[in-house]
């Protein structure tokens, strides 16, 4: 083939590729898309997935159906998505611990957070709220973080706290606090943040680092907030100090909820989903609903990947220092 003919053939091939790539993006989706959630219904990941899924379905013309596969700190759902067909019809909604902690905590993990997933964007970022139940006789007089620390020091290894699962961020936050404060408490893992919230309301545990679903309960007097885990106070609870303000400088842990697809999903589909999720998060009506779960926060896929890498390194150090072991 002559050079000119080869050049023309190459141009034709590139044009064909561009047309097929554009057509792929335009066609997607042509059937329902499954959003896998590794936590129980009613928890923050589930709520965010349903809010975003409703908007995506309305905008893209196909249902985005949430499927809850709770357990193993989100690993069951993550594994399902990692090994799903890379056609764009299986999406993962998860929190930060599923991506940044599990590989550090668990020996038996059948997905790789980096090589198996294409990050789309975060949607919300939220601190945890350290709460006690004012109706529980064991915590009726605990009104500050200092009170909780004093009670734990008076009964080392006797007071129980809950979390949404072994090794998740709520567990890590309490263990980090315990390390800083020099206390020891009993960890009671639940199947998700919503279940741990039920546990403290039922007086099964004395304290929980709760997600922001605790805010209405705090305002209603059902729970008492002692501190928030972020570096800054929570606008919805302006009178509640940060853990750092309460005596532990540098304490700053928040969790995010974000979306992923299998790594090999075609780029046009990834771009479509990223664009539409960001548009959903920036829509005032959707943002208002998302605000119950945290501060709306969206990232480019590249910035999201960088955030994951940074947090994975930092949290691995915390896990080692706190000697947290997966069950």
From TrEMBL:
SUPFAM superfamilies in the cross-refs: Periplasmic binding protein-like II
Pfam families named among the record's database cross-references: TctC
Signal peptide region: 1-25
Transmembrane segments: none
InterPro entries: BUG, Bug_dom1
Keywords: Signal
Family indicated by similarity: Belongs to the UPF0065 (bug) family.
Official protein name in the record: Tripartite tricarboxylate transporter substrate binding protein
The organism of origin for this protein: Bradyrhizobium campsiandrae
